[in-house]
Amino acid sequence: MSSFISSLKTTVSGYATYRGREGHLSFVLHRLTGLGTLLFLIIHILDTSTVYFAPELYEEAIALYRSTPFMLGEIALVFAVIFHGINGLRIAYYDLRKPEAWSIGRQRKSVRGTLAISVLLWLPAAFVMFRSLVINNFLGG
Amino acid sequence: MSVPTRTVSPPKNIETTAWKWMRYSGVLLIPLVWIHVLIQDVVVGVHEIDLDYVLQRWSSVLWQTYDILLLGFAFAHGMNGLRQVVNDFIHDPKAQKVAAWVIFVFWLVVTAIGGIAIVAATNERLAGL
């Protein structure tokens, strides 16, 4: 148990203090967006399954999704899905097609490009979703 | 700028398969997930989604197939990702094996629940009409 705790400490402090700049940032963001999306996905599969297993519960689940905190979370989720997708595509491309290009200089540039594309794709989606949040939850639909 | 490289052949084991799976399924998930999110979260929106909306969608074999693919690829991708993260925190090979089995069983149960719902929800309703 103590060895588990010490390895846990090493991993967590490594996550927080490793100073690999863009590479470190993309690693941490990829994990956080992946785990966040997975957590949502588990809840989403189970609540959508109530359509068959307990239809009377589905309306309650949907009511929860329509609340302001959930809709804000949904906007964040869309960023997670966009970033995880583009960053994953970047990883898959270099791993499968261009492994010789895994150099620090090139990766720093490609991480910045990935972040820029993610934000640019997310902004219009976030705008539409935020508008829907304001109209439905604050202006009475 | 190029770096010196050497060619290695990775062993053909389950970890190599899992490594490839994450990359190929990931590329496939970009159109699958993005189209799903664009339609349901951005264009339609959660205020327009209710029981009838889901049943209507699942009365189409095309959307049932789409959702089955989404469930199969996205959730397996995510749960294998979770296994990889867990392996960063747990270093004892025995404990890693236990964790992998727990994750596998959880994946199987949740996938079965979701899959049954997608296939059965409209079939029973149609049979009842």
Q: What overall form of chain A do the CA principal axes indicate? A: globular
Helix content of chain B: over 70%
Which runs of chain A of at least 5 residues are low in confidence (pLDDT < 50)?
Answer: none
For CATH, the homologous superfamily of chain B is named as Fumarate reductase/succinate dehydrogenase, transmembrane subunit
**Amount of helix of chain A:** over 70%
Fold topology:
The complex is a heterodimer of chains A (141) and B (129).
Chain A: H1 2-17, H2 21-53, H3 55-65, H4 68-96, H5 104-137
Helix pairs in contact in A: 2-3, 2-4, 2-5, 4-5
Chain B: H1 14-44, H2 51-58, H3 61-89, H4 93-128
Helix pairs in contact in B: 1-3, 3-4
Describe it for me?
The complex is a heterodimer of chains A (141) and B (129). Chain A has five helices and no strands. Chain A has helices spanning 2-17, 21-53, 55-65, 68-96, 104-137. Chain A is mainly alpha-helical and 141 residues long. Chain A is globular, with a radius of gyration of 19 Å. Chain A has a domain at 27-35 and 67-137. Helices cover 81% and strands 0% of the residues of chain B. Chain B has one domain (14-128): 3 helical TM bundles of succinate and fumarate reductases (Up-down Bundle). The radius of gyration of chain B is 19 Å and the shape is elongated. In chain B, helix 1 (14-44) packs across helix 3 (61-89) and helix 3 packs antiparallel against helix 4. With 129 residues, chain B is mostly helical. The interface between A and B is large, with 53 and 49 residues.
